[in-house]
Amino acid sequence: MLEELRLDDGKFKFDIEDEISQSPEREFEFRYAQEADNYNDVITFPSMAEMFKDRNKDEVRRKIADKITTEGVPKTIPRENLAEERKKWFKVMSKERKSLRALQYFTHNKDISWGDILSWGYLEDLQVYAIRREQGVQYFEFLTDIKTLPWWDVDELVKIKNIKQFNYGLEVKQHDQHLWEYVKQQAKAGYPDWKPDRPKKIVTILENVEKDITFDIKPPRCLKNMPLHAMEQDFHEEFQGWLYNPKTAEAVISLFDKSTGESRRICILDLMWLVNGSKKHIDCLFYNKIVYEKADKEQAMQYQKIVDVCFAQDINSGRY
Question: Which of 49, 67, 187, 238 could form a disulfide with 158 if both were Cys (CB 3.0 to 4.6 A apart)?
């Protein structure tokens, strides 16, 4: 650096003691603020919360005064009538659609319903439409077959996301695109032309004069036999874990190939597909329990229970 500044001949000199003069020595002088003793001169401002609190109090008093002026002093409600009066305090919310769910579904036991729709989509490998419900899967060969479902189920199919939307695929088969758009338009208009099944309402008067309403639903035109789905047999060496995906109502098996460094997954929509796994496949899923959120425990445990039964009863595809 001295060479670049051409100061290598000894001319460079920098002495801190010679260049910077010392500050004069002074004793510290404490100065007392006389204004600190003048408490009467201090001005305090109320907080925003107190300002709004006072404003709300004035508003409440004004409303009470207006109500007493127009309606008079309200009468005290007797304790025995207090429970009935409390019911009027809150707005009556509309009942969930599930309360209209009929119990006569197309199942092995007509007294048991398959429950609400969780997800649905077109399965390209099986070439069928599958509707995943709370207690099983219904398969339809053609999109037109959903017309045999009750109208509230068609409404649900139109509203919920399709499985293919999560996998970046088409909602329905290519040649069913126009039909599916037509069905969605009809659903918005209340089905003026394309009419799904309208179940017959059966009203029964009970002893307490209340009405018991049941819908007599016809069996939908779904496949009676479950399509056979081939399961991958040797994935235990790449297995990382499996979990329940609430968005698609599927059990997702996560795999990782160490040789290529690539990850992939196997999606299980129907829990009965697990029966077609090999023995090592069943053992792997039995010892590594499925992962799920607390709210999805009931649905996730359906997959785990199938694996547990297959492990205990030695049920598998026959391949070790």
Answer: 187
